[in-house]
Amino acid sequence: MLDYVERTINPGTKGVNNLLGFSLTNYEAVFLQTRYPQVVRVSLFGKFGGIDGVDARDLSRFQCDSFAGVYSCLLFDYFSEHELALTEAFRILRPGGVFMTHIGNVNATAVGDEPTVLSIISPREGYYEYIPPGESMLRVTVGVNWFIDAMRRVGFSSVLYRPVESTTGIETLWFLGVKPLQPAAIVNSTYHRSFENAIPLPDKFLDSSILVRVTMPIVNQEFDDLRFADHMETTVLACRKGGYLLSRDNGSTWESFILHGREEWPFANGKILRSGDLILQARCLGAMEKSGNRAELLVVRNGIVLSEFCPPGNGEWHGTSSIDEAHGTLMYADYQDNGPGRPMRVSRVFRSRDGGSSWEVVMEMDAVEIRHFHLARACPYTEGQWWLSSGDEANECRIWRSTDDGDSWSEVSIDAKLAERFGRKVLRFTDVLFDENRIIWGTDDLLGSASMMDQRLSQEQRSGSRLIAAFPGESGLKLEEIGYCGQPVRSMVDLGKYFIIMTQSARLKHSARPQIFLMEKASGKLEELFKISRYDCGVTGFTYSRASRLGVDGRFFTYRGPRDVFNGGNYLLMWEWELMP
C-alpha cells in the first residue's frame, strides 16, 4: 500500500516526512517509518505509545498544514462523526499530504448509508480492557460510497484502494485521500469553535442551496458555564453563575454583569422583556436557603436587581416557549420534575401584569393529572389568546386555551384522525410556531416503539416524531401531518420563508446524532439538511428546548449540550444561514 502512496504523494510535499498515526502497533510504526521517518503516535484510549487522549474529531492541539500524512487502521469503525474527523484530518495535512485509513470489511457496507451505530462497546475482563472506567465506544457501519463522497466534500481527492492480504487472500478496503496543493478555502483561525456547511437543496425548494455557519461565539474558560437564555430582535441573553452576558448587536459583542450578593447563584433561565428589563431564574440551592433568601425570580436592569420573587414549588420553566409576554401580560408555566420515585409536586402557571414585580397563580394541576407543563405561549395574531401544553405520558398530554390573558382556561379537543393513529402523544411538544391560521409543532415523542424506527419500513409504518399543523376552530383543533422527522423535536425557529426544525438524539440504535430540518413555509416541503456531530455516545436533548423564536438577518441562537457540535466549552451556539437563489 505504501508503494501506492509513494506514487500518489504530490511533489509539493517531498522532503516533508512527518505523519500522524492513530493507535499504531509497533509493527505499523516501523512499517510507516520506511516512508515517514517522523511518526507522531497518538491514541484516544489504550497504551499505544506516544500521546494519549487525542480525539480524531478534535485535533485542535495540532496546527493547520502541519503533517505530510495521517494514518489510521480500524479507527472510523468506532465513532459516527466521520465527516468531522475527516475535516480535522484535512485541516492538519499540508497541501499535497496524504490521508490513509482502513475500515473493516464487516463494517463497510455496499450501499450508500451514512455512519450508523449498531451497538455500544463496554469494557470487561479480556474485552477492550484498555477503555477507561466509565467510558465506552461504538460499533459503527458506513457505506463505502458515502465515505468516499464525505472525503470529497471536505476537500480530498479520494480513491478506494483494495489490496489483497497475502496470507489470507482477503481483499481489504483502504480509503486514500490527497489534499490539493491549492486549498479551496481559507481555514478559520478559530476552526475548532466554528464550522461551515454548504448544502444543495432539492429542486422542489425556492432556493438552490444554503450556507450554514455554526459558531460558539465566546471561547473563554471563564464563561464555560454560559447558557443561552433568550433572543429578541438584536438583543441576546445568556445566563451564568452569578450573573449574565448581554449582547445588544445580535451577538457581535457582549457585556458581562455580575449580581452583587448573588455571585454563587446558578442562573438557569432568562427572558428579555419589551421594556428592556430582564427576568432571571435561578435554581434554589441549599446555600441560598441557609442565607434566608430563597428568591428564584429576579427582575434586573443593567446588573441591578429591581425586584425578586420566590414562586410556590420552586419550579423552573422548561424552555424558551415556556414563558411569554404580550400586551402587558407576562406568563410562564413551571416544569416540575415529577415521576416515579420522585416527590410529586403541583404544576402551576404564573402571571404578572407589572413587568415581573409581582406574580399570581392562574392555573394549577395536580401531579396525578400531569407530570409537568411544557409550554405557555401567547398567540401573536389574537390579543388575549394563550396556549398551554403538558406531558409526558399519553393521558398527561393535554392542551388548554385562554382567550382572556389567563383569567380562565378551557381544555382543547382534537379531531380523532391523527389521535387514533398515534394516540394522545401527538400532543406532546415543547415548542410551537404560529403561522397565520395554523399552529405548528413537532412531537417530542417517537409515537411508537423504538424497534419500529426501522429505515426499511415505509414512513407510514415507521415510528418516529412527526411535524404537525393544528388549525384552531370553535370545536377544537384539526390536526394534519406535515412530514416525518424521526428523533423527538425540541426547537423550531422562524427564518423568513423557512422554518428550521431541530431534534434531540434519543435512540442510539437508530441515530446517534440530532437532526436539522428545513421546512418551506409556502409549500410545507420538509427536508433533512444534516445531522449534528457529537463527541460521546450518550443521548442528548441538544437544544433542550431553548432557541431563538425568530432569526434576525439570518442569525439565531440556541442552547447546546456540552458534547454537541464542539467538544466542551459553553452552552451557547450562534447560527448564521445564507440562502443562495
SSE order and pairing:
Blueprint: H1 2-8, E1 18-22, H2 26-32, E2 38-42, E3 67-73, H3 82-92, E4 93-102, E5 108-109, E6 116-121, E7 137-143, H4 144-154, E8 157-161, E9 174-178, E10 194-200, E11 209-215, E12 227-232, E13 235-240, E14 243-247, E15 255-258, E16 267-272, E17 278-282, H5 286-290, E18 297-301, E19 304-309, E20 323-326, E21 329-333, E22 347-352, E23 360-365, E24 372-378, E25 386-391, E26 399-402, E27 410-411, H6 416-422, E28 433-435, E29 438-442, E30 465-473, E31 476-486, E32 489-495, E33 498-503, E34 515-520, E35 526-531, E36 555-558, E37 573-580
Parallel strand pairs: 1-2, 1-3, 3-4, 5-7
Antiparallel strand pairs: 4-9, 6-7, 8-9, 10-11, 11-37, 12-13, 13-14, 14-15, 16-17, 17-18, 18-19, 20-21, 21-22, 22-23, 24-25, 25-26, 26-27, 28-29, 29-30, 30-31, 32-33, 33-34, 34-35, 36-37
Helix pairs in contact: 3-4
Q: How would you characterize the overall build of this protein?
A:
There is one protein chain. A hairpin with a 2-residue loop joins strand 28 (433-435) and strand 29. Helix 3 (82-92) crosses helix 4 (144-154). The protein has 581 residues and is mainly beta. 8% of the residues lie in helices and 37% in strands. It starts with a helix and ends with a strand. The protein contains six helices and 37 strands. The longest helix has 11 residues, at 82-92. It is globular. It has a domain at 2-187: Rossmann fold (3-Layer(aba) Sandwich), CATH 3.40.50.150.
